[in-house]
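quick one, 149 residues, struct below
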Amino acid sequence: MFKTNRVGITLLTLDFTTNIKKYQGGNFMLTVYVSHPYGGKEENKKIVEDFIRQKQKKYKDVTFISPIHTFGWQYNEVDYVKGINDCLDLLSRCDAIITKRLDEVLDSRGCIIEVGYARGKGLNLVLWDKFDEYMKRFDDDFEDDEDED
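---
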């Protein structure tokens, strides 16, 4: 956790692992990055909102992160490299990435970059339509809160 550099300064290093279990206040937490093509189109933003809204009701201990909702406002205001770097920085703080099937995102340079980055970092890659199946591995840690509303 602590390293000493060449000039003798002790640095605190953070270990970013693929261990997806986080305990915050004794609760199991999972942070999931929701990747989806955007292109500045409001209909794509709505698709992500609907997906997150549906899953949030079922999985209350999961935090869903949408780069579209976080950075979409700057889509036409910053250059592409700055925008994708912001997205990748956000992704690096997540435990898993959810994305559409490859054939559905081939035209989205951003999604391809996000998935490649996630694979390189060893993050869990989950397809949209397989998310519930993926969450079954945590049955002991996550409650299915759908009936509590």
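The longest strand covers residues 27-34.
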